[in-house]
Design a protein that fits this description.
With about 160 residues, the protein is mainly α. Helix content is about 70%, strand content about 5%. It contains 6 helices and 2 strands, in the order αββααααα. A hairpin with a 2-residue loop joins strand 1 and strand 2. Helix 1 packs antiparallel against helix 4, helix 4 runs antiparallel to helix 5 and helix 5 runs antiparallel to helix 6. The chain is elongated and about 55 Å long. The protein starts with 5 loop residues before the first helix and ends in a 9-residue tail after the last helix.
């Protein structure tokens, strides 16, 4: 016969609640970030370009002055894939996959968004939206990774 342990149940409920909140932050940040990639990033004349068109134009204009810049421009087109990996990782309880994908996505999108915001070109809402999404995603991913390892309901005693 199993004895009820109210303290363990209360801690498990609190851990589960924190983990759920962290997961919701990750998913919200992910969604905000992806939405930001499709919003206008730059304006030139009468044309507005989202992040994908902007990166493609930068590649065509041979803006990349180093191998690192060229790699970043090419990696940009994998941002939606990385964002999907975050969601899949969480859904399948692969915290490391979700954490690595989140870190890569946050670094790439926030770095590119900061470069565009600090540039001299007229900027649309996209880069700022990506910065907000990156911040929410980073906080959610950090909380999720921290609480997942100590979550009593995720890792019951004796397992």
């Amino acid at each position: 016969m199993e004895v009820e342990r109210p303290l363990v149940a209360a801690v498990a409920g609190e851990d589960r609640s924190l983990l759920t909140s962290a997961t919701l932050l990750v998913l919200a940040g992910d969604a905000i970030l992806i939405a930001g990639t499709f919003l206008p990033w730059v304006r030139s004349g009468t044309a507005t370009r989202n992040s994908y068109a902007s990166m493609q134009a930068a590649e065509r204009l041979d803006v990349a002055t180093s191998d690192v810049t060229a790699a970043v421009l090419q990696a940009w087109f994998f941002v939606p894939v990385a964002a999907a990996l975050i969601t899949v990782g969480l859904a399948l309880h692969h915290v490391r996959l979700a954490s690595v994908a989140a870190a890569a996505t946050v670094l790439l999108t926030s770095g590119c968004a900061l470069v565009v915001v600090r540039s001299s070109v007229p900027v649309g809402a996209g880069p700022v939206t990506c910065l907000v999404g990156s911040a929410v995603l980073a906080v959610g991913a950090a909380l999720h990774a921290r609480h997942h390892g100590t979550c009593v309901s995720c890792h019951p005693p004796g397992t």
